[in-house]
Amino acid sequence: MTQVFNFSAGPAVLPREVLLQVQQELTDWHGTGMCVMEMSHRGKEFTQIIHEAEADLRQLMGIPSNYKVLFLQGGAHFQFSMLPLNLARQDDTVDYVNTGHWSKIAIKEARRYANVNIAASSEDRNFSYVPDEAGWKKTANAAYLHYCSNETIGGVEFPFIPDAGNVPLICDMSSNILSKPVDVSKFGLIYAGAQKNIGPSGLTLAIVREDLLGRARPETPTMLDYKVQADGESLYNTPPTFAIYVAGLVFKWLLAQGGVRAIEQRNIEKAALLYETIDASGGFYHCPVDRANRSRMNVAFTLGDESLDDAFLEGAKARELLQLKGHRSVGGMRASIYNAMTVEGVRALTDYMREFASSKG
């Protein structure tokens, strides 16, 4: 396998050990003579795969017994609709915190189904920070409070879990799930697209507190009812079996690394290396995000002279440092350094960044 360092924001790099295991098992899973893609989702083989995946995820995240783990489809985008259809009525108010691109899309979709109150927003400074919770304007009887814990495009991450009081706290955790310990008991529902820290695209996780099940509106499509999915143990219809299988391998890989606490220390090291390189560049590179809210997963930065952007990307590609171009909506650069990105990969990037700055200085 060609060794490159892939900094894509998603679909993102997977652990090399997992890819090699997938390769080894591709045509014959555990002596069955079948690929996982060929198995019945109701057969004993896949039942074993999905049950082990759930058990390992519960261990990694410390998920309490009164929460259901759902393996769903449609990406986090589907959750933007599924959430209000299940937890709010048309005349209910739902609270949203707006910290960037994905928050805005979630808000736009929620407005189709309920009254949206923007409890806080960082739009005044181009989504470069997380608003101080003391200034949030929450609704006392909101159906729920929603936030995105890590904005992938802007590189803004929450350093705290909001206090929602008696209101269910909902989190889009797509891009930093499993990157650090989280107290699941503080949430009503956590959802996450798989394609960043979990596995292939096509799979979405939802971790739902049981008392929030059975609240769907009568007009909610059957497939979008959390209770239907929970009662069917994520097998109401054919799930994304291969993606679940790969996710299960990633969970086992994480456990072998020492779990979420151990991977957090590695993530802290990687992020520190990259941000220190940016900050020490004398303005050649710049990170627009407030230091307290800088993401450990998605490091957004610009070059002081944007006319050098193309040369920077070409040089990076020549070093096999791939997919560093920032999102089209914000430009600049973005290095996504999820769990599977190695310290070696980040060191290769920071070495290149210093050399490039020196050559153009």
TrEMBL record:
Binding site for L-glutamate: 42
Cofactor(s) of this protein: pyridoxal 5'-phosphate
GO molecular function: O-phospho-L-serine:2-oxoglutarate aminotransferase activity; pyridoxal phosphate binding
Cofactor note: Binds 1 pyridoxal phosphate per subunit.
Main location group: cytoplasm
Family per similarity comment: Belongs to the class-V pyridoxal-phosphate-dependent aminotransferase family. SerC subfamily.
Record-given protein name: Phosphoserine aminotransferase
Classification lineage: Bacteria, Pseudomonadati, Pseudomonadota, Betaproteobacteria, Neisseriales
Chain's gene name: serC
